[in-house]
Design a protein that fits this description.
two-stranded parallel ribbon, Fumarase C, Chain B, domain 1, two-stranded antiparallel ribbon, Fumarase C, Chain A, domain 2, Ribonucleotide Reductase Protein R1, domain 1, mainly alpha, binds arginine, 19 helices, single chain
Length: about 450
């Protein structure tokens, strides 16, 4: 078939070159955006007297028909076409004749593809945000259902201080609220229309870029036509937001994997979100969480690949940029899929509060509170810290825990110890007295839940 760009060259390209050059398998998913953009463009061309109104009408009808036929499956995308832009224009010309050949007036595939991609990704920012909100709702649900479940809080994966389970998972909710903000920022900065930049320098036709920008729902037009067709920072920005979402999902997944191991035993995942082993009958594996963690690397790869693709490109368009779509689509698809599986996995996760509590009781998790007890009785914190460390060492030597040491022994170490020390180092006291803003106390955690609900 003769290439649309035949003229300067014979268009007799090698089959292998055609296959290599073609992006249709990747960019066909932008057919709606391509057609919508073309309709706005044709209407603007007619309004500006650049093409006859009758031709614009024929183009709009033709494109509307193509869209309907693609949606219904009556028309399928030709896998041998160069890209979605060429395919749509080709079918249009086949269907309406010469009028179709006027569509590409005052336009280039360079501004066309930049437009399609911005339209496509703007909608995807919205979709991913909705999925993030469902995840936030799931976290809130688990936090409210288990408002008083106590578990060990960790640093260095060593038991550190007792915390509410709700407090722990709300930490992730906070990360996801910031992810929502990053998606909104990315969407806002890509909300400028590149259409009318043409190949790179603008055009001699009296086009109205504001008209197409408005018709397509953009807040404004890109100010510089060279920038409009040559940067892909909007892809990088979204990829970076998506990478952080994956970072957060991956850390959460890692914890769920640990928690559901026999060593921890804090949670049990629903059978619907686990798998068995082909050889070990006892196994129940947290494959979904592991895959989310595993797929995080892909999304980082998409980000780094796109940054690397861009870094050496002279202005303006270069074919290297065709690689942007495979990366950003993969990242968007991956994040959506991960959120779709992670959220129901989290909602159906069962907790084992007594095991969590028991873990919090071991490991001298209340040592800070013992030091604070002495400090509140007048001992300088550093001295109290040291003395408590000696008490811990004494316990380890005698195979006991701080709660079970007799008062007489405590008093051998310091006269400041009195009977009220046992209440002060009780796990529940340790949790409930951390009333500082953002802490693990009841009112603070309730306030965090309310804050997250504000995003729903
Ligand atoms: N398929 C191309 C891409 O995705 C469309 C733009 C082609 N422009 C060009 N000057 N060859 O980048």
């Amino acid at each position: 078939m003769e290439k649309m760009w035949a003229g300067r060259t014979s268009s007799q390209t090698a089959q292998i070159a055609d296959d290599f050059n073609s992006s249709i398998s990747v960019d066909k998913r932008m057919y709606r955006q391509d057609i919508t953009g073309s309709i706005a463009h044709a209407q603007m061309l007619a309004a500006q007297g650049i093409i006859p109104a009758a031709d614009a009408d024929a183009i709009v009808d033709g494109l509307t028909g193509i869209l309907a036929d693609l949606e219904s499956g009556k028309l399928t995308v030709d896998p041998t076409a160069e890209d979605i832009h060429m395919f749509v224009e080709q079918v249009l010309t086949e269907r309406i004749g010469d009028a179709g050949k006027r569509l590409h007036t005052a336009r280039s595939r360079n501004d066309q593809v930049a437009l399609d991609l911005r339209l496509y990704l703007r909608a995807e920012c919205e979709t991913v945000s909705e999925k993030l909100k469902s995840l936030l709702a799931a976290i809130v649900q688990q936090a409210e259902e288990h408002a008083d479940v106590i578990m060990p809080g960790y640093t260095h994966l060593q038991r550190a201080q007792p915390i509410r389970f709700a407090h722990h998972i709300l930490a992730y909710a906070m990360m996801f609220t910031r992810d929502l903000g990053r998606l909104a920022d990315a969407a806002k900065r890509m909300d400028f229309s590149p259409l009318g930049a043409c190949a790179l320098a603008g055009t001699t036709y009296p086009i109205d870029r504001q008209m197409t920008a408005q018709a397509l729902g953009f807040s404004d037009v890109c100010r510089n036509s060279i920038d409009a067709v040559s940067d892909r920072d909007f892809c990088v920005e979204l990829l970076s937001a998506l990478s952080l979402i994956m970072t957060h999902l991956s850390r959460f997944s890692e914890e769920i994997i640990l928690w559901s191991s026999s060593e921890f035993g804090y949670v049990t995942l629903d059978d619907a979100f686990t798998t068995g082993s082909s050889i070990m009958p006892q196994k129940k594996n947290s494959d979904m969480a592991e895959l989310v963690r595993g797929k995080t690397g892909r999304v980082y790869g998409d980000l780094v690949g796109t940054l690397t693709m861009l870094k050496g490109l002279p202005l303006a368009y270069n074919k290297d940029m065709q690689e942007d779509k495979e990366a950003i689509f993969d990242a968007v698809d991956t994040v959506k899929m991960c959120l779709d599986v992670f959220t129901p996995m989290l909602v159906t996760m069962k907790l084992h509060p007594s095991l969590m509590y028991r873990s919090a009781q071991k490991g001298f998790i209340n040592a800070t509170d013992l030091a604070d007890y002495l400090t509140k009785k007048g001992m300088p914190f550093r001295a109290a810290y040291k003395l408590t460390g000696q008490m811990v060492a004494w316990c380890i030597e005698h195979g006991t825990v701080l709660e079970d040491v007799p008062l007489a022994t405590y008093r051998e170490h310091s006269e400041l110890f009195e009977n009220d020390l046992y209440a002060a180092i009780d796990l529940k006291t340790c949790v409930e007295t951390r009333t500082s803003e953002g802490g693990t106390g009841e009112a603070s955690v309730a306030a965090q839940i309310e804050y997250v609900k504000g995003f729903l």
